[in-house]
Write a structure and sequence with these properties.
Blueprint: E1 10-15, H1 17-34, E2 40-46, H2 50-59, E3 64-74, E4 83-88, E5 98-106, H3 110-120, E6 126-134, H4 136-140, E7 147-151, E8 157-158, E9 174-177, H5 179-182
Parallel strand pairs: 2-3, 2-5, 5-6, 6-7
Antiparallel strand pairs: 1-9, 3-4, 8-9
Bound molecules: 1-O-pyrophosphono-5-O-phosphono-alpha-D-ribofuranose.
1-O-pyrophosphono-5-O-phosphono-alpha-D-ribofuranose (PRP) binds next to strand 5 and helix 3.
């Protein structure tokens, strides 16, 4: 689904599918260079990271493995509390592996802080984070993110895996919603 097909739902397109594809290829090239000679395990955080995982992994020129986690964060309304419950754990024993967590968005960074602590306790050889989008609060919280696709303003955005009430994940671009959709 592209933004022209749901133009009435959207306020502003932040990134087109072409801009996202171009940036994912740049980030993948950086990851390729950084992990040369090492085998990487990409850990996607469901559900939002499905799109970025699919695109990023296919831009890599070396072998990688993939695994998935599903987590749910407790919080009031849209506010993340950082208290996280694992709904689906990894199938892989990551001890001794080079792990790259793949996220769609980092907002407060609280989910990621929990996840990093949890995964570090499993003794990976290395652990880094890639996110397609990052909001300013995460940058302020000094969450250590090795690869960022785009730093974005603190607005509610949808598309490329990011949802509103379960919809818009399959929007190929990233956009802000028109107020009539959520008010
Ligand atoms: C999103 C995103 C991160 C988290 C970031 O997931 O994928 O996991 O929120 O928020 P934080 O930095 O404030 O902790 P969400 O809970 O919306 O689930 P989803 O991926 O299934 O949409």
């Amino acid at each position: 689904m592209d933004d022209t097909q749901i133009a009435g739902d959207l306020s502003r397109v932040l990134f087109t599918s072409e801009q996202i594809a171009e940036r994912m290829a740049e980030v993948a090239a950086q990851i390729d260079a950084d992990y040369r000679g090492k085998e990487l395990l990409l850990v996607g955080v469901l559900n939002g990271a499905v799109m970025v995982m699919a695109d990023l992994s296919r831009e890599l020129t070396s072998h990688c493995r993939m695994d998935w986690m599903a987590i749910s964060s407790y919080g009031s309304g849209t506010q993340s509390s950082g208290v996280v419950r694992i709904l689906k754990d990894l199938n892989t024993d990551i001890s001794g592996m080079h792990v790259l967590v793949v996220e769609d968005i980092i907002d407060t960074g609280l989910t990621l802080s929990y996840l990093i602590g949890n995964l570090m306790s499993r003794n990976p050889a290395s652990l880094k984070v890639m996110t397609a989008f990052r909001k300013p609060e995460a940058a302020r919280n000094a969450v250590d993110v090795a690869y960022v696709g785009f730093d974005i303003p603190s607005e509610f955005v949808v598309g490329y895996g990011l949802d509103y009430d379960g919809h818009y994940r399959n929007l190929t671009s990233v956009a802000t919603l028109a107020p009539h959709i959520y008010s």
